[in-house]
Structure formats: structure tokens, C-alpha cells
Design a protein that fits this description.
disordered N terminus, five-stranded antiparallel beta sheet, 10 strands, single chain, about 20% strand, elongated, Alpha-Beta Plaits, alpha+beta
Length: about 300
């Protein structure tokens, strides 16, 4: 797939297409000036309507219909982990990379059952020129939100991210009567690790423990760092008994991976597990897991306790 080095912002699959952002009206034949002006304005101002990339793609798909009939639109940006499909995926495709001179903003593919004419492709390219900038704003917003909800050291969710996610999972559990379980995990004697080995080693322990959790957990599970050495694991559609099995794997992986030496700490973790019960609030559930975790510490650490 070719990539245009011009300032156009768009390149067509298998063919470099040089476009002029300053005069897109020249490439939308047989349309009234007022119609084109209104359509271009609506597309270029999409980011004033929403900054959510999924909605921007949906709105763009809807607006494109006024110029070219398309049955499906796929937008992908692997670097931002974005994949949005609107409509249906059909046989005939027109794919474009969204570029400026400085940056890449993903790839758009239009599909339909009937082959696209050159005039229609020209119209799509014209509109994509205007679509680049709402997409750029949407990606920047997405990254800002992700950063606000992510712990910078470990890369997992932070306390704010947990607040947003936990309440949604509780609502799903209530509505569909599905089990929901959480684990509170605290690294044992973490202050001593920092004091003896230094904060750089302490940070490495936090990252290592995070990785052991992620390696043990399923794709649908979520990990959050609450602060310091304390983590919360959210297990949707998981019973208490299932959570105990998962928790024991995590506990063993942490213990076996850190046997200790003169230059490396012996690391263990205490885990408290609580299952959501009807009419529990998010605070009730968190407090139950927290109490169970402290019970594990009081009973000698490196243990699992259930609420």
C-alpha cells in the first residue's frame, strides 16, 4: 500500500494520489456549490460534535452517503488499538491511509457490492481530506483519556479507571444476574523491599508483579493499581470458587518468581477476594475485599482469604 508524502493527508490503495486540501470542491463534480460547502463544513466540524473516535467514524459514514453510496466503512489504527466497523463488509473496496506530512492517522476502507467509479473515488478522497482532522482530534482525546485512566509505571488502570469500570460491571451483574468477583492484592512488606534494595528495585517488583498477574489472567479480566503496592483485579462473570483458583495461581507465580538473594528481594503477596451480592454498592464490594486481604496478612501473609 503506497503512502503519499504530500500534504494531502490521503493516499489510495495501490496508487499514490496527490490531493489539494485547499480546493476540495474541484474534485466533487456535478454538485451545487452550496451543497458541497455544507457537506464539507459538516465533516470538518465533526470533532466539535464529539471527540469519541467511534462516533466520529459513524457520523462520517452517515455524511458520506450524500456524495457516494457506501455500504460499509472500516477504520483501523493499530498504534492506538482502534478498530471501528460501520455497516457491512462487502466485496468491492477502496482503502486509504490518512497522512499528513508529520503523522499517520490510520486507514479507512469503504466497501460495497458494486464497483466504485473513478468519479466516486475522487469524491471519497475529497471528503477524506476533511476527515483527517476530526480523526486526529479524536485520537488525541482518546490518548488523553487513556493516560488519565492508566498508571504510568505499570501500564494497568489506576483508581479513576477502576471507578469507571467497576460501576459498569456491577450494573451488568445486576441486569443479567451474572457473577462478579474482585481481588485485592497487596505485596507483603513492600516498604522493607524499598528500604533494603532501593526504590528502583521496588519499581521493578511492581512491574514484575503486574506482569505475573496479567500472564495468569484471562483477556476479559482487568487489573488496576490503587496506589503504592496495592492492586485490584476485576473478574467479570466469575464465581467465588473460580476466583480462588485464579488467585492461587497468581499467588504462586509471584512467590516462585521471587525466591530472594543478596541483590533481589523475596516477594510474596496477600490476596482478599469478595463476590458481588445483590444490593451491594461498589464501596461495599471494595471494603469486603479489603477486609479479606487484611485478614490474609494477619494470618501470616502470602495467603488468600475470602470475604
Amino acid at each position: 500500500m503506497a503512502t503519499s508524502n504530500s500534504s494531502s493527508g490521503v493516499s489510495r490503495n495501490k496508487k499514490v494520489t496527490h490531493l489539494d486540501l485547499k480546493r476540495p470542491q474541484d474534485r466533487l463534480p456535478e454538485r451545487s456549490t452550496s451543497f458541497l460547502r455544507e457537506l464539507r463544513l459538516r465533516i470538518s466540524s465533526l470533532s466539535q460534535t464529539t471527540l469519541e473516535i467511534e462516533k466520529i467514524v459513524q457520523y462520517f459514514f452517515d455524511e458520506v452517503q450524500a456524495a457516494v453510496h457506501v455500504e460499509g466503512l472500516n477504520y483501523v489504527h493499530e498504534g492506538h488499538n482502534v478498530a471501528v466497523q460501520v455497516g457491512s463488509a462487502e466485496k468491492h473496496r477502496a482503502s486509504y491511509r490518512l497522512n499528513t506530512q508529520q503523522s499517520y492517522f490510520g486507514e479507512v476502507t469503504f466497501t460495497r457490492r458494486k464497483r466504485f467509479s473513478e468519479v466516486e473515488l475522487s469524491r471519497l478522497e475529497s471528503l477524506l481530506d476533511l476527515f483527517v482532522y476530526p480523526v486526529r482530534n479524536g485520537l488525541q482525546y482518546r490518548e488523553a483519556v487513556r493516560s488519565a485512566l492508566t498508571d504510568p509505571l505499570t501500564g494497568v488502570g489506576n483508581r479513576l479507571g477502576l471507578s469507571n469500570t467497576l460501576q459498569k460491571e456491577i450494573e451488568v451483574s445486576r441486569r443479567y444476574d451474572r457473577p462478579l468477583t474482585i481481588m485485592m492484592l497487596d505485596i507483603d512488606k513492600f516498604k522493607s523491599i524499598n528500604d533494603i534494595y532501593g526504590h528502583a528495585v521496588g519499581d521493578r517488583v511492581l512491574v514484575d508483579v503486574t506482569n505475573y498477574m496479567k500472564q495468569t489472567l484471562r483477556v476479559a479480566d482487568a487489573v488496576f493499581r490503587l496506589g503504592g503496592e496495592e492492586f485490584l483485579i476485576l473478574l467479570a462473570d466469575t464465581s467465588l470458587d473460580q476466583a480462588v483458583v485464579i488467585g492461587e495461581r497468581i499467588r504462586q507465580n509471584i512467590e516462585q518468581s521471587h525466591q530472594g538473594s543478596d541483590t533481589s528481594p523475596y516477594v510474596t503477596a496477600s490476596i482478599g477476594i469478595a463476590a458481588y451480592q445483590a444490593d451491594m454498592s461498589s464501596d461495599d464490594l471494595l471494603n469486603a475485599a479489603d477486609r479479606a486481604m487484611y485478614s490474609a496478612k494477619e494470618k501470616g501473609r502470602n495467603k488468600i482469604e475470602c470475604a
